[in-house]
Specification:
This protein is of the alpha/beta class. It has a domain of about 140 residues: Rossmann fold (3-Layer(aba) Sandwich), CATH 3.40.50. Helix content is about 45%, strand content about 20%. The strands form two sheets. Strands 2-7-1-8-9 form a five-stranded parallel beta sheet, with helices on both faces. The chain has a four-stranded mixed beta sheet with strand order 4-3-6-5. The protein is globular. The two termini are about 20 Å apart. The N terminus is likely disordered. The chain binds guanosine-5'-monophosphate (5GP). Guanosine-5'-monophosphate (5GP) binds next to strand 5, strand 6 and helix 5.
């Protein structure tokens, strides 16, 4: 690959962290700050929409059987079974945007992140940490959008997810939201500006 091929592409950012840590709020803040250079990859999931969620906004919602067919058609850059539901990153959106020179954020779990890293070793991996596990637990409980069973599952998973933090290049602690947004903004700014300097005319 020559240097002009490399600079044509956007960066791929992976944001992971335990359920309830605030990844979605943080990702939204980044997209608002850096649009149109940075775009958010909307995942497909077989989980039911929560109150207030709209198809095509937070996720593309579908039945488990539909998801399985999409796996067979190789439509996902990665997919994983998380908290009893399928979640996957649509391949076409990802590739099209990277090829167009836009940077893409994936808000995905640690299993998905490890798979993406194999295919896209240059990915910039960011792990969001809670200030303490107790703080995370109380956030998950406060959010209380899930059944008690699913809640327990999420807490167990949160512990397992935290073990993966060392695989990530950056860790951001989400204690004070504005401070976390500031830290994340600096990370993104570094890469966005680097790419702008190399290739100012991103469409
Ligand atoms: P939630 O159901 O709370 O929206 O998301 C549960 C978990 O699934 C979160 O950790 C989220 O990052 C992860 N997730 C969302 N979309 C994807 C995806 O496309 N692939 C993978 N592997 N995980 C995802």
């Amino acid at each position: 690959m020559n240097s002009s091929q490399i600079t044509r592409k956007g960066y791929l950012f992976i944001v992971s962290g335990p359920s309830g840590v605030g990844k979605t709020v943080l990702c939204n803040a980044i997209v608002n700050r850096f649009a149109p250079d940075v775009v958010y990859s909307i995942s497909t999931t077989s989980r039911a929409p929560r109150g207030g969620e709209t198809n095509g906004q937070e996720y593309f919602f579908c039945a488990a059987e539909e998801f399985e067919k999409a796996i067979e058609r190789d439509e996902f850059a990665e997919w994983a079974f998380v908290h009893g539901n399928y979640y996957g990153t649509p391949r076409q959106f990802l590739v099209d945007n990277l090829d167009a020179g836009r940077h893409v954020i994936l808000n995905i779990d640690v299993q998905g992140a490890m798979k993406i890293r194999e295919k896209f070793p240059e990915s910039i991996m960011i792990f969001i940490l809670p200030p303490t596990f107790d703080a995370l637990e109380s956030r998950i409980r406060k959010r209380n959008m899930d059944s008690e069973h699913s809640l327990r599952h999420r807490l167990e998973n949160a512990r397992k997810e935290l073990d993966y933090r060392d695989h990530y290049r950056y860790t951001v602690i989400n204690d004070d939201l504005n401070a976390a947004i500031g830290e994340l903004t600096s990370i993104f700014a570094e890469y966005v500006e680097k790419r702008q300097a190399e290739q100012p005319a991103v469409k």
